[in-house]
Fold this protein.
Amino acid sequence: MTPRTADDHPMIRLEGLTKYYPGQKQAAVDGLTLDVPAGEIVIFVGPSGCGKTTTMKLINRLIEPTSGRIHLDGTDVTEVPVHLLRRRIGYTIQQGGLFPHRTVADNIATVPRMLGWDKRRIGERVDALLDLVGLDPQTYRKRYPRQLSGGQQQRVGVARALGGDPQVMLMDEPFGAIDPLNRDALQNEFLRIQAEVRKTIVFVTHDIDEAVKMGDRIAIFGDGGTVHQYDTPENILADPADPFVADFIGSGASVRRLSLTPVGGLALPEWPTVARGSDQAARAAAAAGTDRDHLLVLDDEGHPTGWIPLLGPERRPGEELPLLSRLGPDDSLFDALDLMLSANSSVLAVVDGDGRYRGVVDMDSLRTLINARAASDPQDSPRMQEA
Ligand SMILES: Nc1ncnc2c1ncn2[C@@H]1O[C@H](COP(=O)(O)OP(=O)(O)OP(=O)(O)O)[C@@H](O)[C@H]1O
Ligand SMILES: [Mg+2]
């Protein structure tokens, strides 16, 4: 269930927010009006210098707006003492921003200590948060920031922002210094945590793929601190508001949209199956009933475990081979395409949350779906060719 604020107002409301830095002719943020609903992840994307960090700093009152209003949970932030505001908002700044002379543990303990927690509770919290961001507490607790890689510093920054269990998290490119493989794992981990804790999160990235993956909504910023479009990833990819947005999301929007469709929600084609340990006669009977080129093997509980090729013109069942990859219900059509290409396989078994067989995704069904989407998507229709 989505958490709600008391009378259903957005967790953060920006109204005509404008910021001119001293001595500048162009606004860094210009008339920004935008609501962030409670429990959602809102992503700010856009080119360098378009006012993303400035907006975060305004929300957190690190800087004051030239004009406009910011409401947090229904209250004007200028009416909340800054130190109380900071406890309710966790902030990870763009370049790590750890205290250099404090250990990792002390950095993470900053807000819990401000909140007056006892030592033991703080210690447990620090270790739990280090685990959460994938750093072994034993190894890293006592280190100093300079003894960490850039990506590790960013993880500690995320742990520190989560320290006091804030309602709101402002995260300025939290995964920017992390390599693509670890980044993907950390994104998944982050989404898993968010499904449980349901914080209200404003998250900055340069990476449109990260935005589409992580965001409940995306704000596309343009030069001069204006927002060109604020909507769900699905709507932005399907219907960019203007040429700037279309250009920013780039070509291949219909392929990106595949990443928004979990295979678990689709009506999937069936594949011929046989029970594990079935005899040659049963296999031959299954082969006779299909024009597919292999059979899927299911164990007693219905988990797919292997496959049997059907060989030669007489389609004789061959040796059973282990099934190396399968798709879970949360995997997307994009994951399916990716796995087909990397596993060099045109059919993938889909399992439910308990690992039981649900159906398959094959090249034909994928092609049909891509073309159906491309057809409703006039500005971006890279149709997949018939094989
Ligand atoms: N302290 C400051 N004094 C004067 N101008 C500033 C200051 N901080 C930022 N600016 C200017 O305000 C504009 C917006 O900067 P901001 O840091 O918000 O951009 P950004 O969208 O976060 O960029 P990036 O993606 O590179 O982090 C830029 O033109 C920048 O030069
Ligand atoms: Mg920035």
In short: Residues 21, 24, 28, 48-54, 94 surround adenosine-5'-triphosphate (ligand 1) (CB under 6 Å). The first strand starts at residue 12 and ends at 19. DSSP finds 15 helices and 17 strands in the chain. The chain has a mean pLDDT of 86.
